Amino acid sequence: MVNDPIADMLIQIKNAAMARIHRVDIPYSRMKHAVAAILEKEGYVVSVEKIGESTQTRLRIELKYEDSKPIFSDVKRISKPGLRWYVNKKSIPLVVGGMGIAILSTPQGVMTGKEAKKRGIGGELLCEVW
């Protein structure tokens, strides 16, 4: 049993990128799908799709490479099940000098730190990706 499914998903993506694997399948959840959709929108992965039937639903993530080097270089899980980390709109971090993204879970849905700042809302800081 996995205690932190978001961290498990991010580490599986990172490990697949380091091993130069082009596709990874993980168990589906709406939160994982929302985080993966942000990674797709920001250009860290090529595509994200939900596959399978209701009990065996999986999330298929196609990884992105540039000159055989992965775009997804590292990830840091911030808010964990044992210690939730909430930020207001003023304390949303700038990741790697603006080269990475922060992913937040807000009352208006899962979004990037940049988008949350623009909307003027804070939330749970899930992770940082660069």
CATH architecture verdict of the largest domain: 2-Layer Sandwich
**How many structural units, i.e. domains?**
2
- What fraction of the residues are assigned to beta strands by DSSP? 25-35%
Spell the H/E element sequence. HEHEEEEEEEEHE
Q: Averaging pLDDT over every residue, what do you get?
A: 95
Write a structural description.
This protein is of the alpha+beta class. It has two domains: 5-70, Ribosomal Protein S8, Chain: A, domain 1; 75-129, Dna Ligase, domain 1, CATH 3.30.1490.10. It is built from three helices and ten strands, in the order H-E-H-E-E-E-E-E-E-E-E-H-E. A hairpin with a 2-residue loop joins strand 4 (65-66) and strand 5 (69-70). The radius of gyration is 14 Å and the shape is globular. The two termini are 28 Å apart.
Short recap of the structure:
The chain is an alpha+beta fold and 130 residues long. It has 3 helices and 10 strands, in the order αβαββββββββαβ. It has 2 domains: 5-70, 2-Layer Sandwich (Ribosomal Protein S8, Chain: A, domain 1); 75-129, Dna Ligase, domain 1, CATH 3.30.1490.
Kindly list the characteristics that best describe this protein.
130 residues, Dna Ligase, domain 1, Ribosomal Protein S8, Chain: A, domain 1, 2 domains, 34% strand, alpha+beta, five-stranded antiparallel β-sheet, globular
